[in-house]
Amino acid sequence: MRKKQSVLINEIPAHTFGWLGANSYATDDTVHARAIPTVEIEGGVVPTEPGEPIETGAGKTLASVLDGAGIPKTAYSYISDGGILRLGYHDPNSDGMVTADRVYVTVADGLTADLVLDIDLEERCGTRTIVSVEAKLGKGSTLRISEIEKANADAELISDLGILAGDGSKAEIVKVIYGEGKIIDGYRVDLAGAEAKLKTRVGYDVSGNARLDMNHVSRHSGRRTDTDIKVYGVLRDDSFKLFRGTIDFIRGCGGAVGNETEEVLLLSEDVRNQTIPLILCGEEDVEGNHGATIGRVSDEIMYYLGTRGLNEDKIFRMMAEAKMNAVISEIKDDKTRKKLEEERG
Amino acid sequence: MKDEKTVIEDVNREFYDFRFEEGDDVFRVSEGLTEAIVSEISREKNDPDWMREFRLRSLEIYKRTDMPDWGPPIDGLNMDNIVTYVRPNAGMKASWEDVPDDIKTTFERLGIPEAERKSLAGVGAQYDSELVYHNVKKEVAEKGVIYTDIESALHGEYGEMIRAHFMKLVPPQDHKFAALHGAVWSGGSFVYVPRGVSVEIPLQSYFRLNAPGAGQFEHTLIIVDEGADLHFIEGCSAPKYNVANLHAGCVELFVGRNARLRYSTIENWSKNMYNLNTKRALVEEGGKIEWVSGSFGSHTSYLYPMSILNGRGARSEFTGITFAGHGQNLDTGCKIVHNAPETSSYVNTRSISKSGGISTFRSSVVVNKNAENSKSSVSCQSLMVDSESRSDTIPAMDIKTDKADIGHEAKIGRISDDAVFYLMSRGLSEENAKALIVSGFAENVSKELPLEYAVEMNNLIRIEMKGAIG
Lengths: 345, 470
Description:
The complex is a heterodimer of chains A (345) and B (470). With 345 residues, chain A is mostly beta strands. Chain A has four helices and 21 strands. Chain A has helices at residues 60-68, 299-307, 312-328, 334-343, and strands spanning 6-9, 25-28, 33-34, 38-42, 45-48, 73-78, 83-89, 98-107, 112-121, 127-137, 142-151, 155-165, 170-179, 182-191, 197-206, 211-220, 226-235, 240-249, 256-266, 272-281, 286-295. In chain A, the strands form three sheets. In chain A, strands 3, 5, 6, 8, 10, 12, 14, 16, 18 and 20 form a ten-stranded mixed sheet that branches. A nine-stranded mixed sheet of chain A has the order 4-7-9-11-13-15-17-19-21, covered by helices on one side. A two-stranded antiparallel sheet of chain A has the order 1-2. The model of chain A has no long low-confidence stretch (mean pLDDT 93). Chain B starts with 26 loop residues before the first strand and ends in a 10-residue tail after the last helix. In chain B, a hairpin with a 2-residue loop joins strand 3 and strand 4. Chain B is an alpha/beta fold. Chain B contains eleven helices and 25 strands. Chain B is globular and about 65 Å long. The chains are: A mainly beta (345), B alpha/beta (470).
């Protein structure tokens, strides 16, 4: 029987102090089989051949693991405006099973396309599902990615994304993350074309013994590129979360602008929150900002809502729902948005 | 004039770049780091047994500790080429008149005796590995304030106090260069401010490394007792050589209940220096540590003063400025540990990168589970002057309680066209507008420096704006 090898994924582009233990996520290289998704297609989306590899948030190590396990890339091409590709990963693995899937999408010049990823893992001991997506955006195209990441206790979900954005293209990513399991979430968007844009809205609400590990990277190599990252989160019970968010201005990306914020609500004395927001800058003519606020509901809000008859528990629940609903409302795909609204009540 | 670009000059180091040839009577150990060398240093310094054993234990820790796998490259530093102990041809004096001429001239050119006369309560001056001058004003000494070189304290009536505190905040296991320090440390100052005593004018230690290829490993230990108040200033510089020099000092600060300590540093090592310094403060209930840090020199810096807020209501303020010019990779910032309820920290930094310089702001704010109702606010701003340079911000927050209020913000950018336009519309020329903006960018931090250091700041940063923008 083959021995498991430890691998590091979700590696931060510039390391911080080693003692924080936050520079990467350690997992192993086990993959037993391909994860077979449910596939729904609307409009002009057709099978095609995968293009050149695109670097992802989890990194080259994960790509090597998937290559080594012989996991093929299933490729789709959006050939007309308004195409929708929905991929669902709900197949419950048996205990200890590790499955993986790889998808490669191409959006032709000028088109607007939707990609929906719905990864919902049952409570199974030691199971792991890996979904890795690469996307190439043509000139002036828009790809809207709506993603649900839900892992129940004892399950591990690895969601990995890489986007190469051409001139004038736009990537819009909305992620809703929840559950009590391990959720490893990485993306890397290379804004290589002039005036390419990235907008992300991420909402997470994790509880129990959940461990959420995020590595989000926006790499500005094109001129006048733009990043707008907003992350809202709620931590409950004994949950742990690590958010690494990087805006990387590469020399030559003159006129680029990058903004990144994270707001975290901590709703239990046993939670642990790590936030590492990076700005890496090798270009003079840029503007980069990041901000983070971490803590409880402010005394002012608590007082105001208290005078309206709400108790502490209700206020916390309301604030958490408000944060998540703000992200869910950004999902453009009606079917996905309604599913989330129903599931989360 | 139209062809001329706006120019921001590198820090002018001519003021500091002078040297005296080493005399035959200077004692130096061999290059490298071995047990024999560490033992020789210990013998030369007449260490008590516990210190000799401590040095040898630290050496073992050094050998088995890895180099950091983060931060700027330090491949150019080869310990086999570093001389860890150089004793000048002078003992420690209490009068400048008794200090040998070349060393006295060095400190006179740096303005230390003049500053002592005008605005300091006491001065320590270290030349290579040993203190050559130490003095404290009579009226300060009469209050019971102890300010002496650390070796005298170690061998005298404060020996037990030194033993109780030495490398307790920064143990040799902390990192590789803390272990190195534990093995070869020499020189530095000891300060004790008794309960309730307020030292109204600052004490200052100045560290000068003159010997090429040498290391300086001074140890500063300050204890500010309950309700006491002190401002301590540290300055350092060296002439430039074409071989690597190393500074791996260690600063340990103990701030008692309701006490306050302001620790100001202007670091201006030469550009062949690896500055791998460690500074740490332990703050008790209601106490306050204020760090004011200016990093201008060295080839490579790892510098992150750490505040451990260990008592209810303890506070930390860190104000820093970093200027990275050609050939410099300055990795600076701070670390804060909130380890008691109702503690607070405030961090405000500025950095400027130009001519290929690399400036990195790196920080960590840790709020432990027992630090309920603590607050932290971190603000860092970086200015890129050209596209040959780099400026990175790498902050980290690790929050282990829900009852905390943590804020962080960072900005990076260039000189704002809008701000230039606004000032020009008020009658300023473009070059004056830009000069004003850059000065204003640095002023938030420089205004926190003591007045006497404002003069040095003016020597350090010469921002010259000339001509029109091409």
